Automatic annotation (TrEMBL):
<dbReference type="InterPro" id="IPR004163">
    <property type="entry name" value="CoA_transf_BS"/>
</dbReference>
<protein>
    <submittedName>
        <fullName>CoA transferase subunit A</fullName>
    </submittedName>
</protein>
<dbReference type="InterPro" id="IPR012792">
    <property type="entry name" value="3-oxoacid_CoA-transf_A"/>
</dbReference>
<comment type="similarity">
    <text>Belongs to the 3-oxoacid CoA-transferase subunit A family.</text>
</comment>
<dbReference type="GO" id="GO:0016740">
    <property type="term" value="F:transferase activity"/>
</dbReference>
<dbReference type="InterPro" id="IPR037171">
    <property type="entry name" value="NagB/RpiA_transferase-like"/>
</dbReference>
<keyword id="KW-0808">Transferase</keyword>
<dbReference type="Pfam" id="PF01144">
    <property type="entry name" value="CoA_trans"/>
</dbReference>
<dbReference type="InterPro" id="IPR004165">
    <property type="entry name" value="CoA_trans_fam_I"/>
</dbReference>
């Protein structure tokens, strides 16, 4: 039952080239930076990543992206990541853009063993009809486009069928965790982290504070340890290394 692994490098040692990863976080919040850095240092590449966004500034998944280690991204936000946009438009990166709520539910459904579900989000658009550019040819043309999806009517409203997502591995960050893998997420880092953790066949969690079993009130657990296979305890320096994406000050 003790799922603690000594180092981040050891925790990701069996992630192979070409693996699929569900990665938690939103912007700079709740991103498993230490595990991502460990993957970078191992030289792992050809990755298919499922995450809300692909890193920001020079942290998170942006580290792997800039090194050319990511082959495909399933996400919902590009934002101000210029390298992401450059690789996508240049035909170097395959990108499946999904409505944000749909992405969250696809991860949750995959983790809950639900193969597919219907949602009204995207009906009447290329999300349902197909034709979204997944990969460009580098000359402005579309090399690969999204296929059409099944649309059905229920009680007079049309819904599009979306598939649940399962990945080979999941990388998440929690504010607190115990040796059994029970996790607690702080504030906005509770967005995609629990969902990504559910979707992974093997889920690895870096935790800012490691406690013994019983150190977390059962009512306070956000994600039960059944979904987590490995836990890495961060050092105080690693836990406190949190960047600010946009600093706002008043005079």
């Amino acid at each position: 039952m003790d799922k603690v692994v000594a180092t981040a490098g050891e925790a990701v040692a069996d992630v192979p080239d070409g693996a699929s990863l569900a990665v938690g976080g939103f912007g700079l919040s709740g991103v498993p930076n230490v595990l991502i850095q460990a993957l970078y240092e191992r030289g792992t590449g050809g990755l298919s990543v499922v995450s809300n966004n692909c890193g920001a500034m020079d942290s998170g998944l942006a580290v792997l992206l800039a090194a050319g280690r990511i082959a495909r991204v399933t996400g919902s936000y590009i934002g101000a990541n210029k390298e992401f946009a450059r690789q996508y438009l240049g035909g170097e990166l395959e990108v499946e853009m999904i409505p944000q709520g749909t992405l969250a539910e696809r991860l949750r459904a995959g983790g809950a063993g639900i193969p597919a579900f219907y949602t009204p989000a995207g009906v009447g658009t290329q999300v349902a009809d197909g034709g979204l550019p997944w990969r460009y040819d580098g000359s402005g043309g579309v090399a690969l486009a999204s296929p059409p999806k099944e649309v059905r009517e229920f009680d007079g409203t049309e819904y599009v069928l979306e598939r649940g997502i399962r990945t080979d591995f999941a990388l998440v960050r929690a504010a607190k965790g115990d040796r059994h893998g029970n996790l607690v997420f702080a504030k906005s880092s509770r967005n995609f982290n629990p969902l990504a953790a559910m979707a992974g066949q093997v889920t690895i969690a870096e935790v800012e504070e490691l406690v013994e079993p019983g150190g977390i009130d059962p009512d306070a657990v956000h994600l039960p340890g059944i979904f987590v296979q490995r836990v890495v305890a961060l050092t105080p320096e690693q836990a406190g290394d949190k960047k600010i994406e946009k600093r706002t000050v008043t005079s």
